[in-house]
């Protein structure tokens, strides 16, 4: 596939125009409805085309995801334009699960999203965002398509089912509704991109996330949204400007363990998307990025009322989930019942929920002293609540 790849990356604007045309057709609206966003994504496509060792799979998968994101964005904007009342849908007291990657955020997210009065976006909804009361036949068609995509991912990368277990109909990270973020770094090294992110105003991105949730909620009963992503950590200020009554649940784990596990996950994505890569570069990049995320989150939390911050020890949560989660529910104003107990048992029984294997820092050019130096006194904070 090398000739096809070389041709594509030489003309990223051509590939972008093809993806945009498909997104416009599927969304039923011209890109003129959100031209600034579209131009922004054109620049992002150009960044991907400059990745020196990008693989054919990495390129095609990323172009496909950009198309999916543009389709959703244009559809959301069209629905809001056609039905201004959607903007009045209340998004009250959302629960936002944050924390470094590999800190049991997935466990917390899935259990907290399960009660009948709560709601999390499903994976398939990130592929085909629309109103809750959309035509049932169309909904089923989209579900089937998302199931095929999910199955294909597990065929291409069987280990993914253990690293990050998900299906088309399980709750997924809402970062998929945010156009920009460090998540792109799990595939590629994008020169200058993090510096660009550090200067970006993320409030409009979170405003779009709110519009996204309002569309999903239209035609459904109002429920309490449960959101999750490690990458909210460096954007808590912007998030709270859009969702001022949000409750933040922050899971904490020893950064030395986090770094090995996270670098291993990043290597999995990088190996798929690049023909060559450097494991030590992965270590350097993510030690800098994750310690920066924690620093940003700790600064932002100073402005969050204590009653809306819930700190959770990964070690306590995973050692005693049945004892810890009822307390977490109480802090969030939720009721714990036999039904929630059953939901927890189901989540714990899924593949990947109990990980016993840890990963080597040395493979990524790191050692404990380097991690301690990067994270400063955060390591002591984690130990104090362990």
TrEMBL record:
* Documented EC number(s): 2.8.2.-
Record carries keyword Ion transport: no
- Supply the alphabetized keyword list: Transferase
Q: Which InterPro entries match?
A: P-loop_NTPase, Stf3_sulfotransferase
Reading the lineage from the top rank, the first entry is: Bacteria
Question: Is RNA-binding found in the keyword set?
Answer: no
Q: Name one Pfam family in it.
A: Sulfotransfer_3
Query: Per its record, what are the GO molecular function terms?
Result: transferase activity
Q: What is this protein called?
A: Sulfotransferase family protein
> Which organism was this protein described from?
Glycomyces mayteni
